[in-house]
Amino acid sequence: MKLNITLIVIISVVCLSSCLLAQEDKIAPAVLEHDQQNHDQLEIQLAKLLKRSEVKVNPDAFTSTNRIKLSRPFFRNENGQIIDGRSTELPIEVHLYKKGEKCLVKIEESFYPLSNILCKAIPPQ
Amino acid sequence: MKLCHFSLISILTLSVSACGGGGSSEPQSESNNETSPLTWQLGQFLAASTFKDYCAKPRTGNFPDKQGTEQHEKMWLRSWNDNTYLWYKEVTDKNPAPFSVKDYFAQLKTTAQTPSGNPKDNFHFSRSTEEWKRLSQGGVSLGYGAEITLIRRSPPRKAVVAFTEPNTPASNKGLARGDEIVAINGADFATSNDLNLLNSALFPSKDDTEYNFTLRRVNGSEYTVTMTPTQITSAPVQNVKTIETDSGKVGYFTFNGHIQPAESQLKSAIDQLANENVSDLVVDLRYNGGGFLILASQLAYMVAGSENTQNKTFELNEFNDKHPTVNPVTGEPIRPLGFANTGVGLTLDRGTPLPSLNLNRVFVLTTDSTCSASEAFINGLRGIDIEVVQIGGKTCGKPYGFYAQDNCGETYFTIQFKGSNHKGFGDYSDGFEPSQSPVQNGTQIAGCLVDDDYSHALGDKNEAMLKAALNYRTDKLCPSLPSSFGYANQGIQLDESDEKLAVKNPNKDFLKLVLQNKIITTSMAN
Description:
The complex is a heterodimer. By secondary structure, chain A is α+β, with helices and mostly antiparallel strands.
């Protein structure tokens, strides 16, 4: 009887640990921890990943969802007309994920780790 | 929901310096015994990357700038322009030495003219990168939600509301198309010398000040509203309706910009009109300066349907002959853009099937503000023999595109590609022009010259341009032109006393306010 209880406890612990480990490795959608430094870091790292000199991200980006779209802004001349009115570039969709303690972004089909950025996992969307 | 969705849309600043490559080489000395890369040699061009980001005055902070000279900046412009400018062969290779950087760039363009005698290249310019970024305003305008057209910007100034955006201060306070601004904070709009007040009210940069606007309705009554600038999200597709006529149902909507929200809004509009079995369509493009080309392609598909568009080219972007197969800026292969029959992820999910009206004819309402992607819509449909009937004014004439390029704190624009339709036609730099008897030159289109009519709401079948379209549909006749019509009297000074509110004068003084550019002046600029 005592042996059975010990066995059950051991099995339970092993199962729970495996479960926790699996959980740690699982990629989950994430949102950004609300922090200006986080936001600034995100802009810098996205600019590097996308090979642009600068990326500006709205203050509410990645706060309620793990998805944002980045696009070049349209500009207008003094006559009110869009200057670059023939844009062939589509917005780039960026998803934020958390895997273990790391935050990642997914751009197109590839994942890229972010450094010095805090995020928290959210339920799948 | 849409607003929520668009709050997600962030901004990718347009700098593509990384695509331009380079910046890794060391600054070149002019004192070498061998010929320095900085020495101008007629017809000899080094890679632009040799000079990229070497600046006479490097910026401090998070910039790629390195110490260089003005000669570096000019040599970069020279090489970059020679590599990517559409008409690089028409640029005289002058020694940059006597020029300032800006003046040197200004002359790096063709001096050729269009068939009508206008400069072939009207889109060659630069702005300070800081100003350029400021103008983007994060992609969201600070304003009141009223598109205001400035008919005269110098005293006696005259400005009217062209249209309002839904759920904005302007529409909530009852501003309507045709309302004329009489006063701002009590200052007479027509004559006031308080330009700071007028500019700060019309082009607000802060959302912490309220302004009192006095406006005059088309019927002459005046009213005053207090409005505080706020962030405006545009609804580019409005006034979707079906107009019953003796000869069938005619669909109509205004399409004011090829911007993200339009993808789902255009689909909804066409869904609605398809359900109502319209047999004709009027697309009101009079204030549409373009944007995403893919939206023009999608709309063209939704007009013409799969049978008309299958395996056809909507537009092919052609770069100069140094780049016949690969886009020199993005590095992507140059492929023809077809007629898109699914969503592309702007506001519709990718792959969402688009509806279609399967029409062989479409009416477009145009002005000189109808530009770029809007003109591509017209040209793309004409390329597959869909009849386009044009009502209104000549379009702006912009079959070209470019990618802004930063260097040393200045952002440069030079025409890099031209769009052609399925038939290979793309030479409409003078714009598309409606004519009752069009000549077969590719740019004259069957239709009527009609002024913008501010005295009626957009979509009102008595509004002059829509009315002309509906009449032309049945009898192919056009209304007579008013004596003051700009194009009919091109080059003739308008008699101000004859000007009526409902008459738009499409000359160079005709400016549209876009809530970010300060253009109120004390004297005529042109």
